[in-house]
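#onboarding

Welcome to the new folks! Below is a worked example of what a typical request in this channel looks like: someone posts a single protein sequence, and someone else replies with the predicted structure as tokens. Don't worry about understanding the tokens yet, we'll cover that in week two.

Example request:
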Amino acid sequence: MKKLLVSGVCLAGLVFMTSCNSETNNETDSLKDTSTTVETVDTSAAMRTTVNTEDDSVFAKKAAEGGLMEVQLGQLALKNATSSAVKKHAQMMVTDHGKANAELKTLAASKNIMLPKALGDEKQKMVNDLKAKKGADFDKAYSDMMVEDHKKDIDLFRTEAEGGRDAEIKAWAAGKLPTLQSHLQMWESAKMAVDSIGKK
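Example response:
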């Protein structure tokens, strides 16, 4: 009888210990799963932040290079254009884009974004090609270029204004859209005038 009682107590103790070990293991596994989940979410958030910041940086660099080209072309037009209207518009490009360039430079510096100080190969080629033209040929080529370039600028700035992540860069882009749209209308009119002179 005593042997049966002792055996029963031992068996009960064994079952209790096994149950405790099982609960401990479950708690440990649960903690491991939670830890893994938290780490994954944090890493993913960090990656999204990097990508978003990178997008704004790419916009700023493209806008800066475009602005530099506008100023250089405007200065070239003041020397080589024959149409008084084209020269007037060219001066506006130098003034407006020069001001925008200065604003963007200050804004980019506050974000630790390095802007280009010179044109890339593609845009430099556009400037060089225009340098080879004179008179009416220059007026037509420059007006055509300004229409196409401002269409691209508007698309670039609208994309940033609608989908940018950095609030200040996004707001800056949105604030420049009306001026760019005004420039496009102005150059479309100038292009029509220059084209009509060439047809006479």
